[in-house]
Design a protein that fits this description.
By secondary structure, the protein is mainly beta. About 5% of the residues lie in helices and about 40% in strands. A hairpin with a 6-residue loop joins strand 2 and strand 3 (about 90-100). The structure holds calcium ion.
């Protein structure tokens, strides 16, 4: 069974602009598993090894090689659940679970997190001593492991407008088949102790749409 992206007025192919960004590598054309191709991030103006979009996330200067975040390795996405509501604006929801290893000198109280998912950014989430950001439509909870430097991040977005920056990863054409698997790049920047630390990762998600109503994507099993 296939589903079509459908807008509020019932048009069945209104999402041509969701086609893969020209800056991204073309689809590998293989279809099926991994049909979304590699989502590696393009553009590194100053050639310092950190893509411009990640420097913008970190608040460093993408044109200055001396100014860049400290690359910390992987942010592992354990879960991803996106619900796009085509019938009602500002009603999209997203829940993401991530794991990473906290940097040296990390202080939870006052740590500032910025998270990139696809081309959607949640910026400047400031934690309290308990690891929670203030109550809002977007919340982040960071739970430190009792042993070692590991931490689990739980990001929740409600009443969002997420389609523009996330749905493009599900549609390399004007329609997408239910069940297709796509890769979504992710990045986390932590500001703590006067330094900026960058983590990157990606997750494979499976897309499912109900015509004119909902589009859902969750991590592929
Ligand atoms: Ca750069």
């Amino acid at each position: 069974m296939t589903a079509t992206f459908t807008d509020l007025t019932g048009n069945t192919s209104p999402f041509a602009f969701f086609g893969r960004s020209p800056a991204l590598p073309p689809d590998n054309g293989g279809g099926g598993s991994g049909g979304g191709g590699s989502p590696s991030l393009p553009g590194d103006t100053d050639g310092d090894g950190v893509a411009d979009i990640l420097e913008m996330l970190a608040g460093t200067n993408p044109a200055l090689a001396d100014d860049k975040p400290v690359q910390q390795g992987a942010a592992i996405m354990d879960a991803f659940a996106l619900t796009l509501n085509f019938a009602k604006p500002n009603s999209d929801a997203l829940k993401v679970a991530l794991r990473l290893s906290l940097p040296n000198g990390y202080v939870q109280d006052g740590a500032v997190y910025s998270i990139l998912l696809g081309e959607h950014t949640e910026s400047s989430l400031v934690l309290n001593a308990k690891g929670a950001s203030p109550k809002a439509n977007t919340t982040l909870k960071v739970t430190k492991s009792t042993v070692g430097t590991g931490a689990k991040l739980a990001l929740a977005v409600k009443k969002g407008s997420l389609a523009t920056n996330l749905q493009k990863f599900f549609a390399n054409k004007t329609t997408a088949k239910t069940g297709e698997v796509f890769k979504i790049p992710s990045a986390v920047v932590i500001q703590t102790g006067g330094a900026k630390f960058l983590y990157v990762g990606e997750i494979e998600v499976q897309y499912k749409a109900t015509q004119g109503k909902l589009g859902k994507a969750k991590n592929a099993l």
